[in-house]
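pipeline/complex-builder :: batch 7 item 3
reading input block
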Amino acid sequence: MPKVKKIPQRMCVGCREMVPKKQLLRLVRTTDNAIEIDLTGKKAGRGAYICLEKECLDKARKGKKLERAFQAPISPSVYSEIEDSIKKLMEQKSTQSQ
Ligand SMILES: [Zn+2]
């Protein structure tokens, strides 16, 4: 019997549900207070997670949830970058499952 590994879960800033890390996009606040999308999950800094769902991004945007998570202002360009990344990752996912 293979050991069942506990899947690490993180809270999405949009829907505030616990979701397996792999299904989330990691965002990180770097030491110079810039917010970056962390596709590797290995960047240093304060992290926040969001589902690969436009709905969650909209919730986060409307509720200024990333601002709260990072205690830093988030420029609209960061949000559109996140939106692009989510779209790309969703596309990747759908091509992989075919
Ligand atoms: Zn979510």
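note: The mean pLDDT is 92.
queue -> next item
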